[in-house]
TrEMBL record:
This is DNA-(apurinic or apyrimidinic site) lyase. Belongs to the type-1 OGG1 family. InterPro entries: DNA_glycosylase (IPR011257), HhH-GPD_domain (IPR003265), HhH_base_excis_C (IPR023170), OGG_N (IPR012904), Oxidative_DNA_repair_enzyme (IPR052054). SMART domains: ENDO3c (SM00478). The lineage of its organism: Bacteria, Bacillati, Bacillota, Clostridia, Eubacteriales. Signal peptide: none annotated. GO terms for molecular function: class I DNA-(apurinic or apyrimidinic site) endonuclease activity; damaged DNA binding; oxidized purine nucleobase lesion DNA N-glycosylase activity. It comes from the Bacteria. The keyword DNA damage applies. Its EC number is 4.2.99.18.
Length: 267
DNA sequence: GACCAGGTATTGC
DNA sequence: GCAATACATGGT
């Protein structure tokens, strides 16, 4: 079995694109996607890469070395960011899970987002054995009133999650269709949801619909663009701008000293 | 206690 | 249009 290059579990699962994977004491990661449970480690990557579902989930068929080389050739700083986490891959997460997770991410911090998503799954997701839960379906959440979400402690975001669930469950928004729609149209449709603005829409496009040209612009990316790429715009990074974004986001978060003069106190 | 967290809706100009 | 502000909750 061939060794999978350009794939690192920590870089991929702890770079801020997903919230349900948990690192185990032995360094492996356990998670759930589309109702499937997986434990993945450096040792079993080759086997898992053979599996159609997981191979696609981890985007293992894509030539990230080539993408990284192209991005690196375009910009010296981008080359440094890409080299910082060359094993990072953009997951193929479920569209609804990505939409819902990033609605919950707004004005929130990553550890707390993880806790909210965990409680959401435990309270409203289907048990799939061994104490694991599937991500709750939009239909299940659509049937709730926002008040029913108070036990997951997501605060003012409860009404946003319910609105998203209702628009998806009713077919007002067809997430699958957005995979092939014009990017700007897909973005506008997502922004019909109460609580979905440009940033959450772009996260949904990139992480849930695998639209690799989408470029979510959060506070970190705004700082990074100002400081590291003055005068550049996301479009300059081309059709893989989303991957560039993830390299830059991860690099920035792991090296906050780059922005020391702009931030009073980090973390 | 103030301030912050992978933002967004609302309000006021 | 664009700048200010509230929003739930939990950590520093």
């Amino acid at each position: 079995m061939q060794k999978i290059l350009d794939f690192d579990l920590e870089q991929t699962l702890e770079c801020g694109q997903c919230f349900r994977w948990e690192r185990q004491p032995d360094g492996s990661y356990t998670g759930v996607a589309s109702g499937h449970i997986l434990n993945i480690s450096e040792e079993n990557i080759p086997q898992i890469a053979q599996d159609e579902f997981w191979g696609n989930y981890f985007d293992l068929k894509r030539d990230y070395a080539k993408i990284r080389a192209d991005l690196s050739a375009a910009d010296r700083t981008l080359a440094r960011a890409a080299q910082f986490a060359p094993g990072m891959r953009i997951l193929n997460q479920e569209p609804w899970e990505a939409l819902c997770s990033f609605i919950l991410s707004q004005n929130n911090n990553i550890p707390r987002i993880r806790g909210i998503v965990k409680r959401l799954c435990e309270q409203f997701g289907e048990p799939i054995g061994d104490g694991f839960f599937a991500f709750p379906t939009p239909e299940r959440i659509a049937a709730l009133e926002p008040e029913a979400l108070c036990e997951i402690r997501c605060g003012f975001r409860a009404k946003y999650v319910v609105d998203a669930a209702r628009k998806v469950a009713s077919g007002v928004i067809d997430l699958e269709r957005l995979k092939t729609a014009e990017l700007s149209d897909a973005r506008e449709q997502l922004m019909q949801i109460h609580g979905v603005g440009p940033k959450v829409a772009d996260c949904t496009l990139l992480y849930g619909l695998h639209r690799l040209e989408a470029f979510p612009m959060d506070v970190w990316m705004k700082r990074a663009m100002q400081t590291l790429f003055p005068g550049r715009s996301p479009e300059a990074f081309g059709c893989y701008a989303g991957i560039a974004q993830q390299y830059i986001f991860h690099y920035s978060r792991c090296n906050p000293e780059l922005f020391a003069q702009e931030r009073q106190h980090a973390g």
